Each structure stands twice: as C-alpha cells, then as structure tokens.
Amino acid sequence: MKDSEFLESDFIHLNQVTKNYKDPASNIKFQALRGIDLTISQGSITAIIGPSGAGKSTLLNILGGMTFPSTGSVTVDNMLLNDLDDHGLDTYRRNVVGFLWQLPERNLLPNLTALENITFSMEVSGYPRQERITRAKELLKSVGLGNRMNHKLGQLSGGEAQRASLSVALANKPKVLLADEPTGELDSETTMEIIDYLKQLNADLGLTIVVVTHDNRFERLTHQSYNILDGSIAGLRRSRSKLDSTDWRTAEREEVAVVDQFGKVRIPSHLRQKYHFGRYIRFIEDTESGRVYIEGVEHEL
Amino acid sequence: MNEFHRINKNEKQKSWLLRNFLLTINFYLMFLLFDGKFFLYVIGFFGFFTVILLLKKIIQSTSFRRELNSKDLTKIIYKFLKINKLFIVAAILGLIFSTIILAQIVLVSGSYDQQIFTEMVADSQDNYILTYEGHIDLQFAELNSMIGDLEHSAINLLNSHNFEYLESFVNFRHSIPVVLNSMDDEYTESTSINLYEWNDNFFQFLYQFPSFDKSLVFNESLNLAIFDPDCDLDTDYIYNNGLGVIPNNDMTQNISFSIPVDRIWKTTQQDDIYFNENELWNNPFGIYIGENMYITNRTHLEHILNEYSEVIDSRGGYNDGSSSFRLFIIAEIPDLHTINLDEYKKRLRRLVLDAERDLYQQDVQEGNYLGVYSPLLSNIMNYEFYVVGLKLTMLLVSGPLLIISMYLVYFSLSLVESRKSRLVAIMKIRGISTEQATITMISEVIFGSILALITGLIMSIPWTILSLKSSGLLEFDASPIPLVIPTDFYWKLPFMSMILAFNLNIASIRALSKTSVDSAEVFIEKRPPFWQRYYLDLIGFGTSLVYLIYIRIIPVEVNEIFDIVLQVIGIYMLFIFILFAPLVVSRYFSNAIGIASDYIWNKEGGIIALSTKNMGKNRFSSSKLVTLMMFGLMCSTIGIVIPDTFMSYTEEKQYYDIGADMVLNGINQSDPHLSQFIEETEGIVSYSMVVRGVINPWQYSNDISDTETIILGIDPDSFVETAFWNDDYAESSLETIVESVKGDRTIAMQSDIIRLNNIDDYLILSNGYSYRISLSVEESFKYFPNLVTMIPHEFEDDNYYYGSVGILTSIDTAGSLFQMYSNVDGESDFTITESVYLKLEEGVNATMVKEELISKFNSSLYQPWITSVDEQVSQSLDDPFSKMILASMQNLLIITVLICIIAITYFSFITISERKREIGVYRALGLISNQIFQMLLLESLILLFSAVFMGLFAGLFSSHMLFYILNNIGFSYQIPPFKLIINWALMFGFIGILIIFSIVGSGLPSKRLANRQTGSILRGD
User: Fold this and answer.
1) Which residue among B1, B431, B527 sits closest to A22, beta carbon to beta carbon?
2) Which of B189, B655, B749, B932 satisfies CB 3.0 to 4.6 Å to B1010 for a cystine?
3) Over 50: is that where the pLDDT of A108 sits?
C-alpha cells in the first residue's frame, strides 16, 4: 500500500551495498553488509533495527560518510558518496549530516563546555561567524539547557549530555540526522523527551532522521523501519498512521517483506507460527485482485 | 578491523612531501650539531624539493587554501589544546629531557671545544705564522745568505697579506763526523751539533717545563746548553756529542772548539711527558745562544766544521756536511677566540701558497730539501680535527641518554595516542578535515615544544654545570672545565628541540590525522613494528647472546688473526645485544607476566594474581614501560661499572709501569744522604733500591737476532714489602721468587738467555702461554716476575726470539752483568738507571711527599726524577675525553632515576584516568580501599622490579663481556688486563633511591584513587 503522505523523492538510496572486513588478529574476512537496498524519503524518520552484529552501525557509518562500502552505491541528496574525495566527504559530514551517538562521551569533546562544543562544529565548517553564538544558545535553549551552557561533559547528567549532543549534531543545520541508539542510556522520561524533540524537528524543519534503535516505542513512531539481519534487509515496517502520530501505543504499522534480487522473501516469524508454515509454502494467485497469497503445504504428497 | 582501503591518489604525493621535509630538518639537525658544510648542500637539495612539492600542493589543493582561514583555525587549535592539555603535559616531560640532553651535548662539547682551542691554538707556544725548514748541503756562508733571503722574502710576503711582522729566529743543525772505536776497528759515524738562535719568545716557552729553573732570566747573550735526561754529565758527554771536541782525541788534535755555556739544563722525563708533541721539542738538545753571539759563533762554527771536514777527507772517512735549519717567522696574531676562524684560515692558506711559490724560485739541488708551512695553520687544523672527534665522542656517550629521553617521548605519545584517536574521531564526525586536524596537531607539537624548550633551556644551564663539575663527586680529582655558552646556543637549541619534537611526533600526527571512525568498541590492535613482524629482535638477540656466550666459554686459539677477528665481531655482537635485549622484553614481557599470573591465579589467587592479570593483558603498555626502564637501568649499570673499572685499571697499570707507590729515578745509590732524605720524609713506610739496565746483546752475540734484555737488580731484603705485586698473574708468589734471589740465583724466563749471559745459578720459571698477552710495561719488572712475557716466535729457519725478555737478580749480580757488557768493547750500548722504590702510608698525600723529597734533594748535586702512581692517575684522567666520558656516565645515573620515576608516575597517571570504572567495579565487588591500594602499588612494583632485575643482569653481562673482549682482543696489548669492578654500594644505593621514589610516585595517586567513593568512581567523576 502506498502512503500518499510520504514524500515522493528518494533522499537516501542504497543500491546493493556490501561491506567487507578483515580481522587482523584472526585474518578472517567477513561481510558485515550483504547487498543492502533501501530508500529513505526526504523528511521521513526511518528506524534501523536488528540484533547485535547485524550491521546496523556499519550501515549508519556508511550513510555518515565515515566509511566506504566495498561494493554498491550510496546516494544522499543526489550526491553519490562513492565519488567523493576526502574534501568532499569532509563537506558532506559538516553540512549534510549530523551524527548522534549513544554515549555522550562520543558526542562531546572533553574539557569544552556545551556551548564550546557546538561552536566547534561551526568553526570547522566555516559557519557564519556572527551567527554562531546566537545559534548555539538557541539550540541549547531549545533542548532545555539554557542554563547549562557553560557546563562541561562531566558536569552534566546523562540526559543533559545527550541533549547537548543533539544540539551539537544540529549545529550546522544538517539535512539528515543519523542517530545510533540515542536513547539507549536514558531513562524512560528523558527518552520520550528526546523522541518528541526529534519528531518536532522532523515536523518543523523537515529534517530527515535515520535512527538505529532497540526502543519499541521509538520504532513505532517512525515512518518506516528496516529490519536488518545478518547484513541483509530482512523486513520493512511502515506506518499506517498519520505522520504526526505521537502515541506509539496507537501507531499502526504494516509488515512489508523485502524481496531480494533473487526473489527470496523472508516471512516474519510470528506469521509462520500463527499460520503453521512448515518448510514449504504454496503461492496462490488471485488475478482478479492482483494479489498473491501464500499457504503452508505438507511435504507428503 | 581493517577495511579494504580505497587507494588515495594523493597519498603518494603527500608522503614524498613528508619524506623530503623530514630529511631536510634532520640534516639541519646534523648541521647544528656538527657544523659540517656538507650538510648545507644536502639541506639545500632536499629543502628545494620540499618547497616545490609544498607549492604544488598548495596550488593544486583548493581545500588546503580553504583551511588557511586563520581566525577559525586559531580557535580550533585553542580548543584542541584545551582538550588535550593533560596529554600535552605527558609529552612535554620527555621533550624537556631531550632538550636538556641536547643542550648538554652542545654546552659540554662547546666548553671542551673552547678549552682545547685555548690549549692547542690560542695559548700555543708555537704559533709561528710561517716556518721555513731546510736540509741543505751548502757552505755556511751560502747558507747564511739563503736564510737571510728567506727572511726578507717572508717579511715582504707578510706585508702583502696584511700580517704584521714582529720578529724571526733560526734553529740550526749541522752534522759533523765523529770517530768512534768499536771492538774491531775504527770507524766514523755522524753525529750532530745543534745550535739554536733563541729569543725571549722561546725562553717563555721553556718556563713551562717542570724542571726548568724559573729563576733564570732571559738575556740576549745568555748561552744555555740543554741535555737529554739520560746523559751522564760526569763523563765526556758534552764533548762526545759534538758540542765540543775532546782535547785529547787523536782525530781532533790541534782543533779546539767550544762554545761558552753559561748554564746547563738537563731535562727530565717529566718534561718529555708534558711536551712530547711539541715539534720544537723533537730535538731540543743543544746549545741555545743569544742573537748577538749567534753570528759570531756561526762563523766560528763554520771554521771548525771546515777544518773537521778536511781532517776526515784526508783520512778517507765519511763526511756528511749537510745542514738543517728552521727559520721561524713571528707575526701579530689577533684574539683567536673572537675572530672568524674560517676567514683567518683562508688568509693563512693563501700566505702559505704564496710562500711555497716563492720557494720554487730557490735553486735547491737534488737530495736537498727546502719547504715552508704555517704552524699556526697546522694548529688550527689539528684543533678542528680533534674537535670533530670530541663532538662524536660526546654524541656517542650521550647517545644512551638521548635515546632514553626520546623513547620516553615516544612511549608517552603511544600511551596517549589511542586515547587521542578517539578524540580526533569525534572531531572528524563534527567535520574537521584531515588538513585541519594535521595543522592542529602540528600546532600542538609546536606549542608543547616551546614549553619544553623554555623549561629545558632554563634547566640545562645548571644541569650542565653540575655535569662538568661532577667529576669531583666520585673523587676523580680532575679539575672541572669551566662552562662556556656558545653565542649561537640560544638560537641553535630551539631549532634542534623543534626538529626532535617533529621527528618523534610526525608518525603520531600522520596516524591520528588519518583516524577513521568506527562505532564499534575501540581497542584496535595496532600493527606491530617491523622488527617484531620480521622477528629481527629475536634473531638479533639470540644470535648475539649465543655468540657472546660461545666466545666466553670456549677459548678459540686457531691463530692470532682469527681470534682477534672473533673478538672484534664480539664487540658488534655486544652492541646488538644491548640494542635488542629491551626489544625482546617488549615482545615477551606481557606473555611472561601472563603465564606467571595464570599460575598464581590457579595456585592461590589474591591481590598479586589480580595485579599480574592486569599487566598480562598489556592494556596499559606495561611492556613498553618495562622496556624503557630496563634500557635505562642497563645503561646505568654499565655507567656505574665502566668508570670504576677504568679507574682501577688505570691505577693498576700505573703500578705496573712505575713499580711502587712512588719511585725516585736517576739517583745515586752511593749517595750517603739518600737514605737520610728518605727516612726523614714523612709518609714513607719503606723503601728499596733497584737498578735497571736495558741491554742489546745482539751486538755481542750472533746467536740472537733481535732480543733486548732487561736486567732488574733488587735488594731482596726490602723488595717484597715495598714493591707492587699482584698474585693474580703469577704462578709463584713474590716471596718465593725473591727468596731465590736472596740465594744469589738469577731468575729468568728462557734458558737461552741464561746461557747467553753466562749465568751459572739460575731458576727458570714457567709461564702461561698465550699470544694474547704481551709486554708493554716500561719500568717495572717487564712482567718477568708476573710470568708474562713476549713469547718466542718460531720460524722455519731459526728460533727467532722477538721482543724483550727479563732477568731478575740481586743488585750486585746485576752490577756484574753490566760490567761484563761494558768490558766487551770498552763502550757499552745500554742504559742503567738507579732507582729507589717507596711505599707510602695509606691515604697520604703523594704530592706533599714528592715536594718534600724535592726540597731535600735541592741540596744535593742531582735532582731525581720522581713519579708517583697518584700523580700519573690524575694526569691520565685530566684528559678532556676522559672527563667528558666520566661526567656523562654519572649523568646517566641521574637521568635513569628520573626516567624511571617518571615512567612509574605515567603508569599511575594512566591508571587513574583510564581505570576508574574498573576500580569502581572492584569496589562494588567488595574490595576494600587497602586492597585496591595494594593491588595498584603491586602493579607498579612488579614493573619496577622486573625492570631492575633485567636491567641489572643485562648491564652486568654487557659490562663483563665488554672487558672480556677488550682483554682478549689484544687491545694495545694491555697489561694488566681489565678487571670488572662493581661498586655494589653505589649500585644498591642507586636502586634504593629508585625504589623509594617510585613507590612515592605511584603510591600517592594509588592511595588517592583507592580511597574515593565507589559511586563517584563508577560515574567517572
């Protein structure tokens, strides 16, 4: 089903992206990503979910221009990342992408205040000098840290530090925000604050957000969520609710299976269990409705 | 995890730029240290390419131009410094040490440089601007005329080259025939008469000689005769050596020749020692006559020589009528300390070239010689050559210190690098480019270098003064060199320090600026260094250790050359061992600790097991830390052992050379006052008469081709208690040997010598055969009683005895032998010296004893030449090289203590900053503060004691092997051999200080951390 409220253009497009690693200790080569195809529309919030070691963070790093795919192409905002040189990547990281890690220690530089952290991002990117302080203060106020501007990382609580990190990520007005488990370290209340703030940003600024999360609540409030398993897209869930739905409990989602280039489809496990699918299924074609149904089949003839 | 890297097409270009830059700055460092012009050319070559590549990069790279936005860059740099302030402090300490060591190299070598310049050049007594020397077969009148022409020419030359002529004088030497009688017939040989013109300048030169009469005042008409120390003034020497004519000599009847001599000065061996390199002193013996008398006496001499020539010619004898002369030209010399020496040298070279050109016009017949040179220029060039050696020695000796301090920088950088890379990764996420990161890190290096430089500069002056004076700390009794700060010190040192900082940091900067971001947990296993990858450390260490043990245990005596080659290779193997032993420790320390830890853990667990467990994982670079401390301790151990061993060797060698605590040479044993003088002098315990003669018996026998015999006559009653003796090298004790002498037997090494000398009652002592050990001792027993002597070499045709052999006997028997030789042909070709050995009281001041003896002998007809072991040892240690090496050894000790303290403190610092959560978990699990404190302290102590044990062992082994090889290499065939002297008191004191300071350095932070609240630790506050 096509959601007409989604934007038409593909803002982010990954085509058959693979990523190979070699561990120097064991000399073993392995594939972290095995042919990822996904598209993200501009102005959407997309979640990337999956078990540990599935390749979520690798995917995020590729989107953030911090590592290159081994094969495949990555296009963000009509820029083919594969073709960018070092300077191009620097510009991409400065102006197009904002990054938010799970741990505040990875977002904020030590010995610098919250304000200095934000202005640092602006200084490296050449953000107009006269606007830096003003914008930095505005960002901090918007996340509720107006009176904690001159505090350093060690002087902020976990939630405050994460909010400051969010401000840092937004300093240069990025077009896409990449967040790696941004609420993983936070309590429930703060988590919802962050989620609400992100949704607000998305609504107000049309900021495209890609977030890796295990949080069910967050996942249910995104427009779509990709399920990654063993380096491949195993499934897709899309929101049937309106974009401005804020109640994760009432958010309706549809399960969408991903058909890979070989025609393989993964049936979600809860459906397999519910409908007792064994090892074999049968395809039933309904030409009138233009649908194909599946049903479980016994092996014995 | 490594990625499959996309090749960066700019990578190669950048690395060429970096390579050229590094080569340029390092050659500049060499230039600053050694002042070699060659380096300038190389700097120009590489610098040119560096500039070209840099310009190319700037032009090609738009991003680079963008990064030059200075305002933003300044802010970024400021924030980077703020972020990294603790890491800067960590790196600075090592840089401060490096700066201090570099400064010390420059200042110490500069101070010695100035002293040597003063001694060799500025204050030199033979700074003649030009010296003409000739060996000409001419009649006197013609020679006089030639010398006059040369003088005139020289004066013109000086004027044309803007040198101010002062004066000149001539030394003249003419060979005249003297008839001698041998056993077989009468024959003529040539001797020489030396006649010198002298002046006030030369007179001042003589004042420096120890035995010269300082009360003598220069007088232009004064005639002074100078005789060598071995001449016997009581005989006809003055006449037999051509200074006069024997009135009753048949050959010279009717010829009388004499030059009135106002004063006679007989030099001593001491005078020789002081000035044996002075060219004037090559043959100083003769008559020095004043200017006014010279011409008169030269004319007179000419007459005599002409008559002599006629006589010899008529007899058909040999007549060598050649004359040699030296014409010294003295000019005004500027203050050589302040002028541009290179420019002055060029002027002197041009002067010499023109003088040589003028000489070509002189008609010099074949067989004659006439030449010119500049002694001043030679002095300057000798000085420059000497100073290069000095600087190289300084660098070599200070090398370990420099390596240790640089390794400290490298170590601290590697400790912080992984932590810094995390910060750089965050900055990269925020958009910092590689260029910005590089510029930022370079700025950090510059900032740190400036801080280190300022601190290092301030501390280097007192440190250098201390090191120059430190020879007195270990009672070497050498006068300290005054500190001289070169004018270029204050601009040279910043450059050197900066270059050093770049060298050490550049790899880190490159690695960090290329930091990629990885969201996975970062402990990325770094690629091991190349020597580990290719097992070079194991190969080098294993090979060197096996080789050294082999040559130590298994004596190889194939032939002399082969054995020497083996020992020489041993020296190289020793260097390899010293270099690679710490690297092997670096490779295996963690593993070894891990094994120990597992054992302890399985056995009983506890705090020790926990401490060793942490180090086994090598998370905190414990291997590098131990390597650093071990290398320092190894060098310090060597630094403690070598000076003491050399001191002991120097002292013992002097004993073997001299024979006793003090020796009076050239005495008259029949002098009735001799015993009285000695017995009245305070500080003398006993004395013993000795007579020594050196004989060449080949003149008397055709059986031996070339053997010199030394006869030592002793007084057996007093010899044992007075003379020096060491049982280590002898098979028999001195008492046993002297007992034989008492029984009027003669002791010898080979029976043939006994046979040749017709000695009836003798004793042959066996000796230990080894071609490694040979004779070198001059005055003492010639190692006869020590049972070491030259070994006969057998050739195909004859038994060929080579070198010196010795005979020990009583004074009376020796006298008989001397008489026998003297009766052979009426003349003797041997020298006999009568001496007295003195044994001094323990701790007595030898100089005072000597002075008292000299004053007593002033009333007698002769003044003995007195040598003492203490005096000789002091003189040998007064050499600039000795002082420099000894001072640097002492610095090594101090530096190593500081390095180890800092290393342990670093470890504690890392523990505090990186292990808070871990320690919080320990607390949460139930460990109490004391237990955590014990654990942290134990970790530091295990590191320290491991390093101490390994460093000590490696250092002692290296020292032992060094001296073993030196002994066996036939190194100047020294006797006695080197004996390893270990000052255990100093060793343990040094280690004790190290342990105490290290405990304090690690204990305080550990205590502080252990006492903190669990919650705050876990939160990471």
Assistant:
1) B1
2) B932
3) yes
